[in-house]
Amino acid sequence: MIAQPFEYHAPESVSEALKLLGSLENSRVLAGGQSLIPMMKLRLSGPAHLIDLGRIAELHYIAQTNGNVRIGAMSTHQQVATSETLRKSCPLLAEVAGHIGDVQVRNLGTIGGSVAHADPAADYPAALQALRAQVRVVGPGGERTISIDDFLIDAFSTALAEGEIVSEIIVGADRAGVGSAYRKLQQPASGFSVCGVAAQLGVAGGKITHARVGVTGVASRAYVAKGVEDALAGQPANAATLAAASQHAAEGVDPLSDLFAAPDYRAHLARVEARRALESALAAAK
Ligand SMILES: Cc1cc2nc3c(=O)[nH]c(=O)nc-3n(C[C@H](O)[C@H](O)[C@H](O)COP(=O)(O)OP(=O)(O)OC[C@H]3O[C@@H](n4cnc5c(N)ncnc54)[C@H](O)[C@@H]3O)c2cc1C
Question: Whose CA is nearest to atom 50 of ligand 1?
């Protein structure tokens, strides 16, 4: 189908974009268009005004400051996957970006668009939950920073208020001795996660000193696998510990059901992919 008619706007600053968003009725921001344009063509979305963020230079950057890596919302998946800064300081996020869709999707889709869209099968949220990322948003009332856990409310639902845009994602730079990995079972046609698990492990003196695990695709929003993290803390860093802890990967969640996986199978995948991600993270930590 062809999208409903709309007016196209291409602001060159965030303040200009916010003014347009606040003044034009039925307006929507456009990032990479990898989710919004298909929705418009299927007539699931019919904005009267599209505000393209693509020309706003202040949303395009990946920079390290004071132990954090700050990623401008318009950074494409390909830029995240190939960023030297991220590969060195937060390889988990770069690895996850490399698993998204295909090269065309990675060249156009953006981290800000993915987070704002909040698809329960999107890859980034697993890593962002594991990394305890922060989402910076700007709007008519100024700016605020929200933890990813508070930002992701439910499937396709976020804490973004009317007239706000995502401007930046902030993750901590890895400490020495921390290893990470992402493992997913993907839908064969799109690459979206049926289940994706991101893990970060720190080890000292043979014991696990740091364990972070995020899961996507399994529930209506990505979550921290707290039961797994708690079961790993302070334990011997070996395969038996990882296997036992992984059993908690779907604890306390209501697994989704669709054509690709029934709830029990999704919960099983969470446990299997958690073990695989933790084994790879441990190997990277050593
Ligand atoms: C064939 C195909 C395969 C894909 N496979 C995967 C996959 O394997 N894994 C995966 O995670 N994703 C996948 N995607 C989705 C892809 O990652 C999209 O890039 C992402 O979901 C949306 O990002 P975008 O920049 O294209 O946003 P758009 O499509 O432009 O926008 C999406 C939504 O977010 C809003 N928005 C965009 N930017 C902002 C912002 N800065 N602030 C506030 N709101 C904003 C828009 O108004 C819109 O509502 C796939 C997409 C396609 C077409």
Answer: 101
